[in-house]
Amino acid sequence: MTMTMRVLGLSCGNPGGSAEILLIEALRAAEADGAEVELVRLDDLRLDGGDDDAEWFWERLIECDAWIISAPIISRTVPGRLKVLGDRLLGPNADAAIIEGLLEVRRSGGEPAVPFRVDERVLRPRVAGFIACGGALTTQWKSLALPVMHTLTFSMSTAVVDQMVVEGAGTPRSVVLDPGAIARAGMLGRHVASQLGRGLGEAEYLGPAGACPMCHLDVVILRGTDVECATCGARGRLAGDGIEWTDLTLSVISMDERHAHYREIVETAQAHALQRAVVAERAAPYEGFPVTRPTPVSPQG
Q1: Are 276 and 282 in contact (CB under 8 A)?
Q2: Using one digit for the tens of pLDDT, what is the confidence trace for 107-153?
Q3: Which of 18, 60, 179, 207 could cross-link to 169 by cystine, CB 3.0-4.6 Å?
Q4: Dmax (CA) of the chain
């Protein structure tokens, strides 16, 4: 690398726990390969709305060249706070295709039909790596972790270059008993560092192949012989002993699909704007319905 590039590590488990140990191993490997690294703990972030730490984290994410997310597996998936972070910061406000569309509208002298934030730094090329760490030894207790983690990267067109799932780490810090997992985390860090400066379509995927050629995972939806990747939406059909992938442009990782989604959002917003009065009239009967709320706890003292 001719210039120092930044790798942001997000630790989503207990401080000093197995997921964080694996993340540190990955960050150390990336640092040894010349990257500047930073570790942030999800537990340290206030995500209660308003003046919280979401924007603080956004600035670190938007200025990095890669991020590695390491999370424990809880009830087959990742901690809910990680999904909260994604809901706060990502989605349409961080979608590269939507930002490209809104910038084009502005260049043409128009006003966007949808009020999304436009931060051109989203378009900077980035790569990512995922680490999911659980205690179960069987696949059914881990199968939703990586698919949910992919929801954190596709909107910004971040290229996932490696992903791993660790099993058998069911007690605090017990992953240190698994030298193979520690070594694999270091490899993931090196893989991420090797692809710095590259974006979607340029970065090389270096992790396990998986069934889907877009997200490289194995979770699929079957409708007869028709196949849809449950993680990203790529389409195919059963053919012999495997899957013949017939339309990768429908994957949410694909810019083709995301540009189509942007057009859908704009057309829907424009159509609804013409019926604003009808919406207000039909929504009125639902206002004022009684809501039960928890009683505030008085401070003791």
Answers
A1: no
A2: 888 777 677 778 899 999 999 999 999 999 999 999 999 999 999 99
A3: 18
A4: 71
Residue among 196, 86, 74 nearest 142 (CA):
74
**pLDDT tens readout for residues 233-274:** 999 999 988 999 999 999 999 999 999 998 998 899 899 999
pTM equals: 0.92
Q: Which amino acid is at 171?
A: T
Tokens, residue 171:
């007690």
